[in-house]
Each structure stands twice: as C-alpha cells, then as structure tokens.
Design brief:
Distance between the termini: 20 Å
Low-confidence stretches: 4-23
Helix content: 55-70%
Radius of gyration: 20 Å
Shape: globular
Oligomer: single chain
Number of helices: 16
Structural class: alpha/beta
Strand content: 5-15%
Strand order of the largest sheet: 2-1-3-5-4
Order of helices and strands: HHEEHEHEEHHHHHHHHHHHH
Number of strands: 5
Length: about 350
C-alpha cells in the first residue's frame, strides 16, 4: 500500500539537500521563503502548507494552512470556499506530492516561482515559470559563499525534479558538482535525479559516490538506501534506514522511509513499531493520522493481529479527508478481515 515514491521522503536540514559540514546558520534565502514572498507581494488570499510560519504572521492578506496537501479532493473543497490567489509550498515536495501533482495537472493553476525553499503556484492566467527565471537567482547567489552557491543549486534542483523540470534540474546539478566535486549533498541529489527517471545504475553510482565522500551525510545515506530498495536489496536498505531512524528518532519522513523498507524486507514487527511512533508524533503536532493508520492496519494484518488491524482501518475510514486510493484499500481490507 505504500505509495510508489521515486524521490525519497526526506525533510532533514533544509529539505535534505544541505551538507552538515558547516556549523554557521544558512542565509535566509536558503532557510526561509524570503525570495518567494517577494514574488507574492499584493496577494490577498494565500494558501501555505506550513502552519505558524513567522514570516507570514504580519501578512496583509489572509493565509490558510489547512492540512489538505495529501488529499486533492479536500483541497478543491477548501479552494472553492476560500478562493485562493496563490499557494506557497514549503519543505520537501514529497510531503505534499498529491497536491503538487494535482496542481501541475490543473488548468486553474500555474507554477510561477521556484527557488531553494519554495514552490509558488498562482491562479491562471499567470506567467508560468521558465528556466530563464534561474538567471537572476544565480546572480544573487554569486554574492554568497561557494558552499551556499552549491546548496542553492541542489535545493532548487530538488524542487525542479518534483515538478518534472528535469533538464533545468540537471543543469543546476552539473553546476553544483563543478563548483564542489566533493559535495556529498550534490552527488546525493544527482542520485535522486537519476532515480526519478528509473535510471538505477546511474542512481547507484552517484549514491555510492556521495556515500564514499561522507558516510555520515544524511542525504547520501538516504540516496543509497533508496537505490538499494529499488534494486530489491531490501535487507541492505534496511540496515541503512535503521541507522537513519536511530539518528533521527523523531523525524517523520525518515521513519516513513524506514517503515517502507521494513515492509519490503518483511520485517513487519519493526514496521508496526515505527508506524506507531509516526502516529504518536503526528498526534502530538495535531496532524492527520488516517494515512498512517491505513499503513499500520496493513502491517498489523501482516503480523496476524486482525482485531488491531481492523480497528486501525475503521479509524482511518472515519476520516472524510482520506484519499480515494487509501479509502478503497482500507474498505477492501476491512471486508477481507471480517470475512476471515
């Protein structure tokens, strides 16, 4: 039931693209949506997928951060009610992939801006993003350190891959590896770029290079785990995701990857343990848990805990915002469990 995600979920340290080599805090252009917000000046009604963001506290218009990014149907209902002028999407695109895919296919919305932290959509008709928009951003970052020039390219490429702007992403990554051939973060993103196109031999080679450059670098470990997972080497991938989960025990995306790999490796008891932790973390932040409960129901059923699995599926089905795919899966699972 786990979604087939080509790009691994990872929202660690500036969307998973930043090397941990330096202790100084990154520039605002790399850690806040300051560049995107400049393009949104004058916007009256804005949707942002991150609640409580300080930069929007004094926004002159209205801002909504309802948790609908995994459910396009709920998003459409919210938009009919609020009639948003624009969307500001932050963090790793994997976290809001269902909404992103919907917006890309919708004639009502246009991707208008992409930078190292943000993706902006405006209601059509609007001027769409083109690769030429990268030129002024590159000029801006020419004034930053070489390290931050690399980070800018890697993080922006990460978002362009999610938008299927593969040529522009590759150009940025080629520039990043030229600027710093020993950047584990850049080579990890090169691996993600190849993985997004199913080019697994190249993805493994780039992931191995990143890992050799810095075996402790989180995106490098993640890229290697993703490549091993795609090759069907689930136990090897599980060893790496276990390391990640131990290092970041409270990071939801890392735990999700660990749970997905555990399932593939048929380590169902571990999968149950990890999913319960993800749900607890989500509840602590008042985030939706229905999707995770569908996964947990599946894992519990795999360990023979039919009663507990049925409870999780039924709890998930009570959420009106459950996606159609997940609702269909849970409904069939409930029927199967009751028939057994």
């Amino acid at each position: 039931m786990y979604r087939s995600t080509r790009i691994v979920l990872l929202t660690l340290l500036l969307a998973g693209a930043v090397s941990c080599r330096r202790a100084e805090p990154p520039s605002p252009e790399l850690s806040t949506p300051v560049l995107a917000l400049k393009t949104l000046e004058g916007t009256r009604s804005l949707y942002c997928n991150v609640a409580g963001m300080p930069q929007l506290e004094a926004w002159p218009g209205t801002v909504d951060a309802s948790p609908v990014v995994r459910n396009p149907k709920a998003w459409r209902a919210l938009d009919r009610e609020k009639r948003f002028d624009a969307l500001l999407l932050l963090d790793d695109p994997a976290a809001y992939r269902p909404l992103l895919d919907h917006l890309r296919e919708s004639p009502d919305w246009v991707c208008a801006h992409v930078d190292a932290t943000s993706i902006v959509f405006r209601r059509a008709p609007a001027k769409g993003w083109t690769p030429e928009a990268l030129a002024p951003l590159k000029t801006l970052f020419d004034k930053h350190s070489r390290h931050e020039q690399v980070i800018f390219r890697v993080q922006t490429a990460h978002r362009l891959i999610a938008l299927n702007e593969m040529a522009a992403a590759k150009t940025l990554l080629d520039e990043a590896t030229a600027l710093d051939p020993r950047s584990a973060g850049a080579w990890a993103e090169v691996s993600f770029w190849h993985a997004a196109q199913g080019q697994w031999t190249a993805a493994v080679a780039a992931a191995d290079k990143a890992y050799q450059l810095d075996p402790g670098h989180v995106p490098a470990i993640t890229a290697r785990a993703n490549a091993l997972y795609a090759q069907g080497k689930f136990n090897d991938a599980l060893e790496l995701t276990t390391r990640l989960a131990e290092r970041f025990p409270d990071n939801g995306p890392t735990l999700y990857l660990h749970a997905k790999v555990a399932r593939a490796a048929r380590a169902f008891s571990r999968e149950v343990e990890v999913l319960k932790k993800i749900i607890a973390l989500a509840e602590a932040e008042s985030l939706p848990t229905s999707t995770w409960r569908v996964y947990l129901g599946q894992a519990l059923a795999s360990t023979g805990q039919a009663s507990a699995a049925l409870k999780e599926f039924e709890t998930a089905l009570a959420d009106p915002n459950l996606s159609e795919q997940e609702r269909s899966f849970a409904t069939k699972a409930v029927k199967r469990l009751k028939d057994e």
